[in-house]
Amino acid sequence: MRSMKADRPDVASAQETRAPTSRRTARRDKEPLFDADLFDLPQAMRWREWMGRVEAAIFASPAPVTREALARLVGRACNLEDLISDIRDDLRARPYELVPVAGGWQLRTKSRFADAIRVLNKDARAAGPPALTPTELLTVTAIAYLQPATRSELSHLAGREISRDVIGRLKNLDLIAAGPRAPQPGAPYAYVTTKKFLEVFGLASLRDLPDIEKLEDAGLLQCSANEIRLDGMLDLRDKDAIELVEDIDEESD
Fold it and tell me: How many CB atoms lie within 10 A of CB 53?
């Protein structure tokens, strides 16, 4: 009898040892590994499948998808820049396009189809920031160019008091955030723009902000270099104006 009792713990121990392994195997069976490389497909089919994965992931995401996230969907041999370029080429005849926004990629309806969308959805509005007062738009634009910027610095630039209510609303809209405290008496907060700011204004990064000096040289600003007005700078959508600035950039290079 003692011999039989002595064997029981060993049997139970072996069963306990096997059970976790069996559970892990079952989990692996239910959750097959994601095949990013697709080595079993011909090269052309593999490329098209990668394109479909990337486009589908961007389409399903409510926010811009970063390059790092997209790289997880394709094989290590995939040149992601070339892949995205091919997707954008495929979409040229479509009513939407793939655009770089806030450090990622996002599908956006082309602006010329805005009226058609509003026919079915009267509440639809153009992509961009929420309705802002002239003072709010001036303030968020000034912060974009000068950040970090304190409220007193913004008031000095605007030539009028920028109230706490203006700052508060821009913060509530997640267009700006409190940055470092300025090395000034009272150590006031300085403000910076957010990732949401880039998204709503359709900017890939702050480097995409129009260059003030180049816009002035091109005659697109009605002011002198010493009295730069920032009103409307972020609403620069005129095709001729944008192409003119791009030409200036090429000449300067």
Answer: 18
